[in-house]
Every structure is written in C-alpha cells, then in structure tokens.
Design brief:
With about 290 residues, this protein is mostly beta strands. Helix content is about 15%, strand content about 45%. The protein contains three helices and 20 strands. Strands 1, 4, 5, 7, 11, 12, 13, 15, 16, 17, 18 and 20 form a twelve-stranded antiparallel sheet that branches. It has an eight-stranded antiparallel sheet with strand order 3-2-6-19-8-9-10-14, with no helix packed on it. Strand 4 and strand 5 form a beta hairpin. The longest helix is centred in the N-terminal third of the chain and has 28 residues. About 35% of the residues are buried.
Length: about 290
C-alpha cells in the first residue's frame, strides 16, 4: 500500500515538475509587448521639461522673439498639463504661449508613436491661421535656440492640412528627394536628392507627399522611425516622406551628424492633445516603408 502510494506520488511529482518547467520557459520567452516604453505615465509630466518663450503683445516678429522669456519649468499659465479627455489621460497643450515640452532623456535609433487631436482654441498671433503644433526630434543644445521657443531639431510638422511636412529648426538639415512645383519642394521618392538647410537657397521646408490627416477633432496616429541618419514620417499608417543624412550646423558653421536627441512637442498658438506616447528601439527601418 505504501509502495503504491509512493509510486503515485513519484508520478505526480514528475508531471508537476514537467508542467512547472513549461510554465517557466513560457514566462522566460514572453517579452513585453513589442518592447514598447511609455513616455507619458498618464498622471503627471514626470520625465518632461517645459519651456516658455516671450509673450506676444503685438509688434513685429523680432521684437516678440527677443522679449522676456519665462524659460525652463516656469509655466504659471499651465500651457502644458495633464487632463482627462474622453475618459483617458492626455497631455493638454493650450497653445496660449509659444514653447515646448521636451523629454529629459535623449533617444537614438527608435520608433516613436503617439496620437494627437486638435482642440478648439487658437491664440494670437495665429488666431486666423491653421492650427499649428509640431513634433521635434533629435532636439539638442539650448532651449529657445529656434526663435526663442524651441531647440535645434528636426520637425515632423503637425498643422492642419500640412501634417507630415518637414522643417529644420535652428540649424538642423536633411537631404530629401523632391520635385519642384509652384515654388514648393514636394517629397518625391523618384525626385532629385537635395540638401535642405537654412544656409542655402532652398531653405528648410519640404512638403509631404500625401495628406492623411483626419478631420479636425478626430484622433490621428503619428509614427516616426529614426535609424542612423534616416527618418520616416508616417501619419495614420501612410508614409509622408523619407529623409536622409540628418545633420546640424554647429556654432562654427560646420555640418556634423544629428542622429540623437530629445523629443519635444510644440505649443504654437493652437490647443492640442497628445496621448499614448511610446517608444521602442530599432535595429533597422521597417521594409514596408522603404519600398
């Protein structure tokens, strides 16, 4: 009787051990969801800095941008704050004053994804212009280097009708294949590869190839892929452009690579919301967007 009981226990112990090994192996092989890391915790702006430039009080651009700045982490008007919208936590940017919300950390070789939605309010001097903001990446150097508001960076434009355009901020440069159409350089994968910089006659702006933004008031998804010196702008699953040889003009006037930096969202006269801001490391660019 004891012998049979021992045999039964031995068999039970054996199978329990096998099942335990399977569970342990399964847990070890299971990875976090596609290795995403959330940059917004849904509660506060931990991990982010705010920067506010001079207040607009009329006059010309030069007088405004040289005015007194509130500066770093001094935001009495709560231009940047956390809110609840449609039952979800969001970063709410009022647009009331120009400035930027930037990560503490720098990133390199990554896939960044976020969602944005326009609010209703607009402010001077852009109360009669399309709603405007922007996703700045590879942001480096001093805050306010660009017009007193933003860092030197590459810009994934977020503006009604123009989301996905490229702008180089404060000396950032890119090479982009384009065609010239009515004095606008438009992204064209079969076009001529040209250098865009504030120091040449072409300037620092390239128009996207397709308009994939949803109507104002709906959520849009941005995907930004950066690997080495190349970047890909994608809005709502549609590629807007591929940009090559990311560089910056340093204080000595020389160009040098720009492949790493902070991430910054702009406050630029329009109310906007962001949510589901997350990032993951890339080992290569996605082939489906390179075709």
């Amino acid at each position: 009787m004891n012998s049979n009981l021992n045999k039964t226990m031995d068999k039970s112990t054996f199978w329990i051990g096998i099942l335990s090994m399977i569970v342990i192996m399964g847990c070890r092989s299971k990875k976090p969801e596609n290795n995403w890391e959330n940059l917004f915790n849904g509660t506060d702006l931990s991990g982010w800095d705010t920067y506010i430039g001079a207040e607009f009080s009329g006059g010309d651009w030069e007088d405004w941008t040289k005015g007194e700045r509130l500066g770093l982490n001094n935001d009495p008007d709560k231009v940047f704050k956390v809110d609840i919208l449609d039952g979800e936590p969001v970063i709410h940017i009022s647009g009331k004053r120009f400035g930027g919300l930037s990560t503490h950390r720098e990133f390199q070789n990554y896939h960044l994804q976020m969602e944005f939605k326009w609010g209703t309010h607009k402010y001077a001097p852009k109360e009669n212009a399309p709603k405007d903001s922007g996703l700045l990446y590879h942001a480096v150097g001093e805050h306010g280097a660009d017009s007193g508001f933003w860092m030197r960076s590459q810009e994934f434009q977020i503006q009604e009708g123009d989301t996905g355009d490229y702008w180089g901020c404060a000396g950032a440069t890119f090479d982009v294949p384009v065609r010239l159409e009515e004095n606008n350089f438009i992204y064209d994968p079969m076009g001529e590869l040209l250098h865009f910089s504030p120091d040449n006659e072409r300037g620092r702006h390239v128009v996207k190839s397709t308009d994939a933004e949803k109507p104002s008031g709906e959520w849009n998804t941005i995907d930004l892929f950066c690997f080495e010196g190349t970047a890909i702008h994608v809005i709502n699953g549609k590629k807007n452009m591929i940009l090559y040889n990311s560089s910056q003009i340093n204080t000595a006037g020389n160009e040098m690579p720009l492949v790493k930096g902070k991430i910054q969202m702009q406050s630029e006269g329009a109310e906007i919301y962001f949510k589901n801001i997350r990032i993951r490391t890339l080992k290569e660019l996605p082939k489906k967007y390179l075709r």
